[in-house]
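Review box. Two proteins, two foldings.
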Amino acid sequence: MYDIVWDPETGGILLKEAASEGLKSAIRPVFHEELDLLGFQEKWRYPRVREPLLWATTVGRLYFYRGECVAEAKGGSFFQAPTIRYFREDLELTPVDVPAMLAKNAALMRSLTQEAIGFIRQSYDRERPRADIAAVAFSGGKDSLTLLDLVQRALRPDEYVVVFNDTQMEISPTYEAVEKAKKRWPHLRFYTSRCHKPPEQTWREFGPPSRIHRWCCSVHKSVPNLLLLRQLAGNPAARVLVFDGIRGEESPARAAYGRITPGGKHGTQVNVRPIIKWNAGEIFLYLFERDTFINSAYRYGLARVGCSICPVASNWWNSIVFRIFPEDCETLLKILLEYSHNLGKFECDYVDSGAWKARAGGDNLGQTSKIVEIIYNTDRKYIIREPSPNFLEWLKLLGNDTKMGEGYGCISFKKYLWKYN
């Protein structure tokens, strides 16, 4: 919401209500773990401390020390380490003076925080009467940590639940962050949603997800989350109110999201986004001010947290995660290599180049069409041969399932109705 400029005095950042020289890229603090990983110790001297040592941009991967651009990271992938271009060598780093940085930003951060807390309370009071249950979406990342802390300051513990959506593909620090959150806020009700099928099974059944076929988001995230909330509400058609930590700075698509979105994810769900306008600098200032732990993955250079292998992840993510958490990548990476081998591709090149992310068809899935379409006038009928025993579970992806008897019923979504038997 505010512009950000460098503060050479503290080594930190300053919020400005308007600054023509403000940074135009998302930023993140840089810790000694990242410098060690990338080999900065060969050129620079720095202490191994808890505080950040400098800052980096998430786009362009430029490193700034007290306002000066001192290095740049280039390249990187699963099987190739990034290279570093130095603009300053023989540099000795002094940690960011975090208390002084927080003091300089206290007034604007107080205003930002109070507005968010007030918005959460007002949104809850307005939307909750129309919902059966309210929840905070918790991912273990910096945004959801900020969101959760704001919500628990605005609402009573009995007014909502906290749901961690476990895709079963998360990196280890995320699971550690969830356990830390439970200890930090023991008065809150934490729940975990997950798909009943493990990803190693769905990846083989559907093929690896891609930017075109991102089936993983529905199968492993949104649907399990909604099913859990319906179960907790005791209503298979429950209307749910979800506070999420999405921020517009993350992508052009998210920048277009509304702060309150009815039916954005599902027809029966309202999403409230208190920090949609916050930038990454404000997020870290808030976490430092509240002395809230951060996911340890950020200390190695990651700008976000998510699934260990993801079709929309950057090469930077692949490079860092595979070097620090190889065991978290092992199962899905093996599936990717097998998939590329069966396509007749050179496995490492196909995976490392990200070519698998562009998959648009069903090559190499070893399946033949099981769906027959019958069209009569304006009616359409689909016959599924050899359906999976869990086929009715997958139908829930389409909408609300109403069973009218053994093996038959209807799926409804907005004005549409599909019958099945």
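Next protein.
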Amino acid sequence: IAPLGEDGDGVPYRVRHFNKTSRQFDGLEEVVLLPQAIPNENGLPPSSSRDLAQSPCNGGGWYIYGAQNQGGQFVVQALAPRQLFSLQPDRELVGKKPATDYLKKESWALAGVKGTISSVLLRPRASTPDVRMDFQVGDRLLLNHLYGGIGGKMREPAAQGPVYFGHFAYGLVEVVLEPLTDELRLEIQYFQVYAHNGDGLIACRHHWSNYMGDRQYGWLGLRPVRDIVIKLDAFTGTYDLDGELRSPLDGLIDQLQIMMARYRIGDGTGSTFVGPANNCAQDSNQALYAALQRGSRAREWTQVNPDAAPQIKPLMRLGRSLKRDLLPWGTARADWKGHETVLGSSLEDDPLKQLWMGLVSWRTVLPRVASDAVVQSFLQQGATVLVLRTSQVGGSNPDIDSIAPLSL
């Protein structure tokens, strides 16, 4: 509602809770604490509570994560705009061309969107009139994550050059019934294939409230982010193979868990080096390649049980499309085939080999190119796609601006 005292970072805020009966924010009032975030090594505060009540997201309310202090007051550790997770998109685009144009151009148009969120539903063809018919409680969906850079007066060191590459990750999205509102909402987790950094991010599974929403460590207030939720039954659904339920999405999660464990120990060397052949986009998509290789064995099942073919064939088409997009030269890298232990090798160890491996899968060198290629493959197979975008959301910080990741 308003800060208690002069508005600024670290000032307590009056808040009003959501009322499940009236469906409005006319519930109990209380005062919550938003401690001032500690600036990072570049002197940049990771979040701000200044002008929070004037945020474009405030009308839809916030989820707040945290704990009570010894005095019984709630201390807000993480903040999340409620509308971002609802299944009520701002607009819908139907058709492959409008979907592709939005992905490649408009989804990274950053002028005038600072502090805002958006939700756009993409369908390759017209289907159900209500998005809530596309998503049901219990659905498990694929997340395709991409973030951009921090510009402005307090530009981050990684964005000092003429281009910014961005960061890519896969994740898991689940459709749940929110007990606070009795509405469907999205629950988001990220599987970060990432070299450990000074911000405290490690290669493991992260909940949205930690990786994005945390006021000290998250990216919500600092970066432009595009999270794409993908539903395609051939990949996100389950198959009954002779009484055994299997899911290609679970196969990808298994491979991402393996890759994250490899990153944590550098394939046993203790260090992981990032370069053209090994980075967030390359190795996340190596995990996808491995999952598709496992899924391709389902073809054998159709020979035993022809009735399974209608289920299996869409997965086979998706696998061929993704391999064509991720490996445009028609062959897999040796380390993708054989899981070679290369994460502990730096570019200086064998520069020609590193560069050659990167070129074989060149579409996964750049995070934005990899992200667009994967999403378009899913759209071509009939996927329903929900594009969630945030751009430096929360309290105001006039010293930063958003930078889009490099594309071709």
